[in-house]
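[job 0412] stage=complex_fold ligand=calcium ion status=START
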Amino acid sequence: MYEGTSFRGEEFRGDEDAAQLGDLDLAVSSIIVTGQAAWTFYTGLDYTGASVCVYADHTSTDGSIDLDYARFENLSELGLPDNSIRSVARGCFSERVVGAAPRSHSGGERVQDAGN
Ligand SMILES: [Ca+2]
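[job 0412] stage=complex_fold status=DONE, emitting structure tokens
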């Protein structure tokens, strides 16, 4: 998450739930989501308020590695007011969903760990 639109300014990076965003509280103006997990963004602290669930809906391939991502240059692309996000959770917990629907992995495909 970024303080400015188009991924400028201070950054907040995370790979797990965040009940509050520290310096970026009420400041987030753009977002990049990576990986196959959905993320839910909330306008309230501790996963409250309005929410939207975001899936990565683009894939870029680097060698044999597929990278899923979604970029939102401003929060209106998510249907949220600018500078409104206060917490974020890994997983899809909102009825409002942005990005790709969950892909089925019925073919036995394993979800790859991002390698951290
Ligand atoms: Ca901002």
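Residues 5-98 form a domain with the Gamma-B Crystallin; domain 1 fold (CATH 2.60.20.10).
[job 0412] exit 0
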